[in-house]
Amino acid sequence: MDPDLALVVGIVVSVLSVPPLISALSERRPPRVGAVALLLGIGLIGYAMATVQGGYTLTGIPRVFARVVNLYIF
Q1: Domain boundaries, the chain
Q2: What is the pTM of this model?
Q3: pLDDT for 12-27, tens place per residue?
Q4: 65 near 10, Cβ under 8 Å?
Q5: Nearest 5°: CA angle at 42, between 39 and 46?
Q6: Quick one: DSSP state of residue 52?
Q7: Percentages helix, strand, coil for the chain, rounded to the nearest 5?
Q8: Cα separation of 31 and 43, whole Å?
């Protein structure tokens, strides 16, 4: 898997896991789905960071998003 794609998918999955986590915690349920999604997202981000020589910077992440969208969407 392309590390840039793994980073973007990991960030998106991690962000989308926050509402189920908050919902489950507010209803006093175990946050199973949110926790699994968060772990998957963190794993993908970790894979991308470990694979790329030198890692990613915070200022470079928007460029990675744009590159992935241009490569896989358009």
Answers
A1: 3-72
A2: 0.92
A3: 999 999 999 999 999 9
A4: no
A5: 135
A6: S
A7: 75, 0, 25
A8: 18
